[in-house]
């Protein structure tokens, strides 16, 4: 009868395994000789127990092993054979050792983080979202955004609690409030950026009621989620999001589901085709083979240098996943059409009747049936969808960053992920869709195309009209010195009532929340030297970025006269411009430098300009947590997963400076090294690369004359 691992461990305690040598035996020392005994003692003393543990933990993390692997008797025997000091110094670790180190590190550093948050000069903004880990924990990521004492924008994770009950608004609110109270920041909470889930509306009502504000006024909506809904409406028509959730592609399509997708037009038919290829090893390998054959026939000098491409499957969780599916399909169009032809020939050959023809009762595979084929007109429509969604992608790229100012290529300095770009993002995309509606008659299937474009426009406009529910967006744009109220007056010239409403919303925030006495101690400080002007980026390959540049307001210099005693800061600023305002790329520095001239207005501006336009930080958190919860570590407790991710974020934010390698993903460690070595040009693309795994598809499409 064989022994289990637990029994082996129990039987092995207290005795040395066969073949294991002591240190004295390894070094052939005579312990009766005082000199040789001293050598053995010195050797044991020189063994760095903590360094050994760090190396062991680093290996566990690097290979995503289970924490309990360090307790395996066979592994410990190897350590003792290589260096008996491991046992002599009791350096082996257990899974409880690792867990205890995590909890101790969290408790050790939390007070330090609380102090940093307490000293933050402005409001602390938040974002939260739900995620289900690979080991079936329902977790809620809670991130916060604030300015430190040096006016540097910071972001950290506050918690990743498990919500084991139903994800109702009250249950979500309870978890969020518990985390807020644990950091003692109830009186510093600002605005929230959340997705459009209904339970978030209820949660915000409860959170606002507990913390003393109106929840709906403090709730911003994730811009990326809004664009995703609009993009799906363009591709799939009315109620596209509910449709895709029902048919998420998690299981092979039934005939009925296949028909429903087909009725959604060219994009639905393409989805059917991609799902069929993606879920079939036979079709996937056939597609790769066709690409290899074509490469050989074209006398490619490096026939093995270009790896065959697979189709990309869209899903209901990743922003603009349909765009990447479409781009890859356009690139592979010729090969896909050959694949369908080959697949039909093989199928018919395998199902021949005795007379040599196909059996009459034979049903062709879905992708080979004529009604499921993509016609030339279908492909033309799909190409147009790719063009339209390219504008969505350009906008998301500008808004899904972290708001951190970085020096870019050729000295251009700026940031991605800024709240003042949201209103402009809506205007930019609505303008593009209106342009496509005007020229729809020139396209194949113009009525279907026009209807879907209009549905996408309506979805965008639906959320555009909700911007006035909160002061976030109008305030962020109006208090940017390069845009001011002139942006609204110029772009909404035909809607003066909109401009009046926006001005009232912003002025009410100023009047009731910020126009008070100067904070104690502010008048006695000396202003810091102004930062040098940033070099502007004159043009880019991002049409939305060019749109933002064109919409800057160049106003005549009205002088730098100071405020008279009792003069309203807000009214003074909106009527006094300075030379160089239109070239401001960093409004945070702009307002920080003017905090003595406009002590209260600068607080208001800095509070609003640091609000996040998207909940992308939660997505990044889930991505890191997903790498930690591998199949071999499925027993990780939710508490440990959360603490590891929280500690990791504190370290990356620079709030804490030392941490065991256990808490840092090896992939992220390598990324940090790579970032330090990147050029400005490489850094420019880093913030958005996680959304574009097929970044080279544009170039390949152009090279093949298909885009």
TrEMBL record:
Keywords: Cell cycle, Cell division, Kinase, Metal-binding, Nucleus, Transferase, Zinc, Zinc-finger. The keyword Cell cycle applies. GO terms for molecular function: kinase activity; protein dimerization activity; zinc ion binding. It comes from the Eukaryota. The keyword Cell division applies. Pfam families: Dimer_Tnp_hAT. One of its GO terms (biological process) is cell division. Residues 586-651 form the HAT C-terminal dimerisation domain. GO terms for cellular component: nucleus. Residues 1-10 have a biased composition (Basic and acidic residues). It is found in: Nucleus. Signal peptide: none annotated. InterPro entries: HATC_C_dom, RNaseH-like_sf, ZnF_BED_domain_contain. Residues 1-21, 519-544 are annotated as: Disordered. This is Acetyltransferase (GNAT) domain-containing protein. It comes from Purpureocillium lavendulum. The lineage of its organism: Eukaryota, Fungi, Dikarya, Ascomycota, Pezizomycotina.
